[in-house]
Write a structure and sequence with these properties.
278 residues; alpha/beta; Rossmann fold; ProC C-terminal domain-like fold; 2 domains; 13% strand; disordered C terminus
């Protein structure tokens, strides 16, 4: 970022605080150059102590001062926030939104037109610097804006640029995805306990197994099917476990979960045609 630019943040819950922490840790922004607002003043005070950011008196003050503004509130209340900051936005401000299902065209409309907007969908792993984030530009965003958004979100993990029409699918897959993995780790740990392992050992083994398998996919570049076949030797334990998983429909359960979350993301937003008066 350019020297002495102000980053504003409205909403400092899990995603907002993770983003701000990532920026400071990566030394992309100094704490004193962050201006933030949240209705939870205690949480805002904790971030002030941790990062040295400046708490704002209200969200209008954040919008008026920010060169880059992160909207990190729930999609159900984003309408209200946009109505409150309408007319207060600093000229030339780049708006970043992480609200699930909320289209850039609607943000542009509710902020009076030609606002530069980049929409993003990170996930909760941003808290440990390992988020999978997808970004897409709004109508008025420039390539430099997308480049800056990518750089900022890379402070919390990896970033992929996609078309906006696919953002709900991203929400269903990677945005909601950590929950699927948490459930899988818990289930594996439960199975280990059932087979006689202690809870601590079972959880440690399950967690490292998931982490190691993910690293293999990422670092080898091999298709998961190829890596699966490395484990499933003829007549062995893995092929018998795989048969049990296929018989009980694990693939279908996961695929349906992603589809369900994608549909819910669409419900949380509104059709872009509505933003254009259609």
């Amino acid at each position: 970022m350019a020297r002495r630019q102000t980053v504003g943040c409205i909403g400092t819950g899990n995603m907002g605080s993770a983003f701000l922490t990532g920026l400071v840790k990566a030394r992309l922004v100094r704490g004193r150059d962050i201006l933030a607002w949240d209705k939870n003043r205690q949480r805002l005070g904790e971030l002030q102590d941790q990062l040295g950011l400046r708490p704002a008196r209200d969200n209008r003050a954040v919008a008026a001062a920010a060169d880059v503004l992160l909207l990190a509130v729930k999609p159900q209340i984003l309408d209200k926030v946009l109505a409150e900051i309408r007319g207060s936005l600093k000229p030339g401000c780049l708006v970043l939104s992480v609200a699930a299902g909320y289209p850039t065209a609607l943000i542009e409309q509710l902020l009076d037109g030609q606002v530069r907007v980049v929409r993003a969908m990170p996930n909760i792993a941003a808290q440990v610097g390992q988020a999978a984030t997808a970004i897409c530009p709004g109508r008025h965003a420039r390539r430099a804006d997308v480049k800056l958004a990518r750089r900022l979100f890379e402070s919390c993990g990896s970033v992929l640029e996609i078309e906006e029409g696919l953002m709900d699918a991203v929400t269903g897959l990677s945005g909601t995805g950590p929950m699927y993995v948490f459930i899988i780790i818990e289930a594996l740990s439960d199975a280990g306990v059932r087979m006689g392992l202690s809870r601590r050992d079972a959880t440690a083994l399950a967690t490292q197994t998931v982490l190691g398998a993910a690293h293999m996919v990422q670092q080898t570049g091999r298709h998961p099917i190829y890596l699966k076949d490395l484990v499933t030797s003829p007549g062995g334990t893995a092929i018998n476990a795989l048969y049990s998983m296929e018989r009980t429909g694990l693939r279908a359960v996961l695929m349906e979960a992603v589809e369900t979350a994608t549909r819910r993301s669409r419900e949380l937003g509104r059709p872009v045609s509505n933003a254009n008066g259609g």
